[in-house]
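Methods, example record. To illustrate the input and output format used throughout this study, we show the complete record for HTH cro/C1-type domain-containing protein. The sequence lines were provided to the predictor; the line carrying structure tokens was produced by it.
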Amino acid sequence: MGRKKISPMWKRYGAEVRKCRDACGWSQGQLGSRVGLSSSAVSLVESGSLKPQTDHATALDSALEAGGRLLRMWENFNSQGLFPAGFEKFSDLESKAVELHEYHGLLIPGLVQTPDYARAVFMGTQPWASDDAIDRMLRSRLERQQAVFERSDRPIVLVVLDEYVIHRVVGDEAVMKAQLKYLIDCVDARKLRLQIVPRSTRLHPGLAGPFRVYTFDGRPTVASCEYFFDEQIIETEAQVRRCVATFDALQGEALSPGGSLDLVRQVLGDLHD
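The corresponding predicted structure is encoded as:
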């Protein structure tokens, strides 16, 4: 989520959320438990001080049984001044890109997470979320994966990970084994090209944080970076060039694709159920 100065658009969106919540007879805490937000976060959304991320906007619409009305309002407001022309949400960037380049130093990227791994991530990062809220966020993530990998013209996906990512057990060892097997399967199926930056690399440009680069046919390249509350679109030419150069540098620091896959298999073999 992104804490911003109150705007008339988000104040209006928040008022609609509050109206729907009141109609359900729920407190802010009761709504929050259903969508994976704290009661204070719901209060900020309703005041227009906090703009929900995609997963939470989807969960709010579903929990409040708004029939898509709240989600359409969110997409309309969110697209104004944020996304490049022709795009309305992050899933548009993913589904229309001809190339996706992603670096992550903490977790397996959402694009290639298994359902159990993704669920564990949601439970760990949002411990207050209800089971229903987790289920809704999980469905949203899996739909985004399908939109990318089930396209007839699926994009070229290049992923660079810090070695710590494949050693970090998320959920439990059974979940992590299944995740590493799925990662290997994705590489074998040529869905993505994977490279690992070894732990012996003490300093590398990826320490600045996770990011993505999206390349399109006939449109300018854009990038996005994650931070605690939100994901930010980067369109400025100089900043996009820096992201591209950073990804290139990370590929240079990383093991070869073959060596990276061997490392994943080695880590998988060391795990025990």
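Annotations derived from this record:
The beta strands are 2-3, 50-51, 99-104, 156-162, 193-197, 211-215, 222-226, 231-234.
The chain is about 55% helix and 15% strand.
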